[in-house]
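for the recovery benchmark. tokens below, seq after
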């Protein structure tokens, strides 16, 4: 848990805008991961994203880690904007189109217990919401 996945000094709005622009030019979607460095399951999920067997599906996403801070209130307006309730647990995910519209968001803390999820379950989610092949 020493990896700084959610740097405190990053402006999530700028990162999201940049990710949307890159996603538009590369025919991708944006994967918003709301979480915090103190969250063990956030680190577990990030490790899964870097697994070799995830590489092909992850190429369809621009990943943005959105820090919720030590009290869970930082960037709460972004969580609301992207229809991702944080009171059900983190990490909480939203898949967003390059136009900023929510494709799907987690409503019930589905990834809150990432350490108990199988890689297959996570791959199923990512494959379901990846952009259509051209």
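predicted aa per position
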């Amino acid at each position: 848990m020493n990896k700084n996945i959610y740097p405190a000094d990053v402006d999530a709005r700028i990162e999201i805008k940049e990710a949307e622009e890159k996603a538009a030019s590369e025919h991708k979607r944006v994967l918003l991961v709301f979480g915090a460095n103190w969250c063990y399951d956030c680190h577990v999920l990030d490790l899964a994203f870097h697994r070799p067997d995830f590489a092909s599906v992850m190429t369809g996403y621009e990943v943005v880690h959105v820090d919720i801070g030590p009290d869970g209130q930082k960037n709460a307006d972004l969580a609301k904007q992207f229809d991702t309730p944080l009171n059900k647990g983190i990490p909480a995910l939203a898949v967003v189109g390059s136009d900023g519209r929510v494709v799907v968001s987690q409503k019930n803390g589905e990834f809150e217990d990432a350490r108990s999820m199988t890689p297959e379950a996570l791959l199923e989610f990512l494959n379901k919401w990846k952009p259509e092949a051209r």
